[in-house]
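Subgroup meeting minutes
Present: P.N., E.W., G.H.
Scribe: E.W.

1. P.N. recapped why we're keeping a running log of single-chain structure predictions: easier to compare across weeks, and new members can see raw inputs and outputs side by side.
2. G.H. added today's entry (402 aa).
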Amino acid sequence: MVDTMARRPSCLQPGRLWRELIFMMLLILGCSAIDLCLIDYAQNPRVASVFSQGLLEKSGSRHVYNVVNPNLKRKKGELLCDNNVTAIHLVKLRHVLRRCMGETDICILVHDERCKAPSAKPGELARWTQRILAILAGIDNFLIAEGETDILTDVMLINSDYSTPEIEFPGPAEVESALVPKIILREYYSSKYDYPAISLGPRFEFKPVPIDKQLSGHRPIMFNFLGSVTSREPDRMRLRHVLENTNWTVPTQVKIFDDVVLAPHHDEVTFYRETLLNSSFTLSPVGTADDCFRFWEAIEAGSIPIYVRRNLTSGIIIHCPDAFEDVLRTNPPIVLLNGWEDLPKFIDSITEAEIDTRRRQLKVWNTKWWRATASAVDDVIDKALLDRLGGDQEQFNKLLAP
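Output recorded in log:
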């Protein structure tokens, strides 16, 4: 955060009004806002859900987030952004060297579930780049000694898919300080990185639920799990064992898939939503990542997530240390079990009154979480834009002018 940055007044948010009205409402209320242009190079609307759904604006963001598809813009012959000063790149790993190494680039990294992105550790980008080259060349036993940074000659030979001719890489002696991607934010929190993370939130197609439905009690289903379980996911395999070997005395809705369903049918999407709305609890096991859309969609539907931390003794390599702990350390009023084998005992002991209390507490926590997230993301982006402008506060203030 920049101490000299001018503070804008807090603003009332326009509830469920369309995104097109949000910016005008901010101006009418006398609030300063930046109309941001997020270029979705990831080409996946789901990974930009937290921005495209307007969740941050509804949670008190000082700015408006406009997600644009670069391919569609180019086909129409339109500019990607009306104002390049407010342009931010939404990128996957394969875009980092091409979109995030320029002096004025600003990137938000998405879809890095396994935390494969390089950290800001000296020389880490060079090591990471060499590994990409090794993978492309089919070299399985590639290894670079820790801290080795004299590989810039090879880094500069990257093919055009991973580099851009406008970028001039520094010499080997400057690797440690200069070769750091301009990433300011990422999906999937991990203590591996020195920049913050933003939670996934509900998918863009999971429409907001009215408050009265969120808080509705005495639901016909005690808990649900509609999801995939594969042999590559030992934590989910444990859950499956419990689900299939317990004589449940409460109504449940369980449907297990042998593989991830990437493009569910409309009827399945509707069934999933209705199941969450009719369930007191939603089982939210870790999968490839520890954060998942299901967790936030359950909260949106008023279905309390039941969560178990990843088992660190399962022999699986942990790529994302402290994953999801940014959420868990706030003590959200979800159900946090020590293991899935504790699920039957919990279900047998919980009362409807306790469920109702926890559901209302979760609604309050969720509102506070996203308000804090919106404010933190605003601060990170404001600082990045100010840095892009060379610290020129006057030019930055012009972006805020109503």
